[in-house]
Amino acid sequence: MIGFGGTFKVLAALSGMMFMGYCVYFDKKRRSDPEFKRKLHERRNKRNFASLRSSGSANMSDKDIEMYFMTQIHKGEGLITNGDIEGGVDHLINAILVCSQPGKLLQVLQSTLPMEIFTMMLVKMHAYEAAERSSPVIMDEEEG
User: Fold this and answer.
1) Could you tell me which residues come within 8 angstroms of residue 94 by beta carbon, excluding any fewer than 6 positions away?
2) 3-class secondary-structure state, position 65
3) Which pLDDT score is estimated for 138?
4) Burial of 109 from C-beta contacts in 10 A (0-12 / 13-18 / 19+)
5) Residues 88, 74: Cα–Cα separation, whole Å
6) Pairwise CA distance, residues 47 & 53, whole Å
7) 3-state class (DSSP) for residue 57
8) Which pTM does this prediction carry?
């Protein structure tokens, strides 16, 4: 016969195994959701958008900015060509953020992209800017 201490240990072990099983099940279910990757990319892009806007790319050299710009343009074009319109638009938005002349780039994109994709890009940029404005501003200790 198992004593009270033994019963407690068995129940604790079973509870721990059930909890771990639930965690594995929930994680698998979450990752298999078709919207999971899209939502994850949106969160990352919003975070990147906010950090690029706030930093002003001050800590990057001109060559780094140029490389980042070209990489984002190429990734965006490639994804759009392969059918991943949203992913491609996200990369093009990243390129616009670091571009020294975003107005000219937007004119080029407007003339080269289909109108639906260009409109989607403008809507996403507006949504990111609205989300950035509505997020709380964290003040430095010196300012507060």
Assistant:
1) 45, 48, 49, 52, 68, 72, 76
2) helix
3) 47
4) buried
5) 9
6) 10
7) coil
8) 0.54
Average confidence (pLDDT) per 10 residues, the chain, 144 residues: 75 91 86 77 68 56 81 91 89 86 88 90 84 56 40
Token couple for 60: 């990057």
Which of 90, 53, 95 is CA-nearest to residue 70? 95
Rounded CA-CA distance 37/41 in Å is 6
**C-alpha 104, offset from chain centre:** 25
**Which residues does 97 contact at the CB level (< 8 Å), separation at least 6?**
49, 52, 53
Residue in this structure with the two tokens 């959701």, named with its chain if needed: 33
Alpha-carbon distance 97 to 17, whole Å? Answer: 48
